[in-house]
Design brief:
This protein is of the alpha+beta class. It has one domain: Orthogonal Bundle (DNA Binding (I), subunit A), CATH 1.10.30. Helices cover 21% and strands 14% of the residues. The protein is built from two helices and two strands. A two-stranded antiparallel ribbon has the order 1-2. The longest helix is centred in the C-terminal third of the chain and has 8 residues. The protein starts with 26 loop residues before the first strand and ends with a helix.
Length: 73
């Protein structure tokens, strides 16, 4: 994921792959279906995300969050 410079799968915006690890726009790996929702810990269930987007998502699925609010921001 990091090698291909993927965009954030949650918001669709570019990730700053050079940012420090605490930067809200830095790269983290997100479980698309959260482990807390019995999602598998496999590469197919992982995607690139911003630290801030992943933090806001928590252990929820992306679609219901966006449907309710229109975005994660």
């Amino acid at each position: 994921m990091k090698a291909i410079r993927a965009a954030c799968h949650i918001c669709g915006e570019a990730i700053d792959y050079e940012a420090g690890w605490l930067d809200p726009r830095s790269f983290v790996v997100d479980h698309v279906i959260p482990l807390a929702k019995q999602g598998p810990d496999t590469m197919a269930n992982k995607a690139a995300a911003h630290r801030a987007c992943n933090s806001k998502k928590r252990a929820r699925l992306v679609a219901p969050i966006i449907k309710r609010s229109g975005s994660l921001k």
